[in-house]
Predict the structure.
Amino acid sequence: QTSVSTQLTVSWAKFTDEYMLRTFYLALGTACNRTDVVAKADIGTTTFTTLQGLKLQHNTTYYTTIWAEDYVGHTTSACSNGIFVDLTPPEPAPWVRFVAPTLDEDDLAAGGGPHYSQSVTEAVDVEWAPCFDPETGIASYALSLGTVPLAGDVAAFTTQGGEDTLKGSLFKLGLKHGVKYYATLRCTNAVGLETLIQAEIPLLIDTTPPALSEVTFAPLPGDLTVTTTAPS
């Protein structure tokens, strides 16, 4: 599998022949022994070459065929395993969100807009729906955390697991009271192409209890007399 459409590097083991090897021929095609991508060409006795200037197509498998020729004209051939070309990154997860105890729909004092809240300063938990890659599948998920969307200034991307992982955590963060943080999920497919998805709702760190500045008794309606009688 590859995400490179312009070149391929090919290597092979030497053929053995009692009359000694004279040269190799190489071709590239969409099936073994086909030359529809790169025509059959003499490449000498090297066992390693890079084909450049290619225009490989997405979602297509290519095969390299090697022909060995000895000094009396005998030839034999071998075909490589297919290499599949994937040029597109994964489709993004439909949602990413913090796993936090409180969701505040709106708080103007904290900067406006909805946010999750937690008092823990050393760790965050995040969950997500799956990313999707129909060609080569999801190889890994990673999380980062920042003070602005799609940033990693608090925690750089940390791998959380493979294709079946739908929840992860970041630790040893040292988060600050009153600051909003943004999580970013990175989906990577099997050829290394990436998609980034931001958690839509940020996380606010709140480490202080509510402030209570004054307590007053409200006046009772009408006239009310309270009498206390000592027991006899």
